[in-house]
Amino acid sequence: MTAVYHDRFYPNDYVGTVAISSPDDITDHGDAYINFINHDGTPRCEADLRRVQVDALRQRAPMEAMMASAASSAGVTFDVVGSLDRAYEFNIILTPFVFWQFYNHESVSCATIPPAGASVSDLYAFFDTAGGTTPGGMLSISDQGNGPFLPYYYQAGTQLDYPVEPQSFLVEDGLLRYPYQESARVYVPSSIPMTFDPTVMPDIDNWVRYHGSHLIFTYGSLDPYGATPFRLGPGSRDSAVYVLPGGDHITLIASLPADQQQRITANLRRWADVPSTSVSAQLSVPGAAVMAALVPRSRGLFG
pLDDT digit string (tens) for 37-49? Predict the structure, then answer.
């Protein structure tokens, strides 16, 4: 995402941009993400995810007791989000999003969803993995866990916008104490003002469609962030979008079919004027390593 924004405002800094799993929130992001998550995976897996969310909220007291014990041992607090109770509920709401985001990683799969009647320990273990894949598991929404992500939450709440997760079925069952309150705002200290600017992302989108060049976007078909992908337009030059069927949020160049890898490699080599032997070994490494492999002069490839 940052690579695209940089290219928009400093188009002469780099010879090309590789953006991995980058959302482009310019429309009704609420419906886009909700519709995507509600139809992600198989119907059986979707139903199991919803059931386990209901189970976790009905077992709130013992589950929160386990979370409180883990928080005490780790020495973490929940002052910014407001309370451990709020953090717990937000974790449960976020679970399907994170589940599909990292479906092929962190031992997350439909087979790992606990069955009906599972013990509280098994439920907690599942949400500690699938519901909090960011460092810290169920404690990821703590002050300490959220610290490294505050710049993202601030920008999401002021420029990018923030995904909305399906929760109407939980509201209808009376299981939520803080319905529709999970947002970028709740993760940023209240002392920091936030005002949303709706013109920022349409500007980025317009640049990609009508002025962007040397852009490569990769997405996984299971990744919720792919619900609002960047799309090329009539002015996009020498650019491409690749979507990997069954891919998740970590869909790198090396994740794609061999012919697409070869096509991308040829473009990167042409853009950066680098011999092929300098590129092939770096295809499985995101960001900095790819950039380092493609910076023989002052202008390189930013991804």
Answer: 999 989 999 999 9
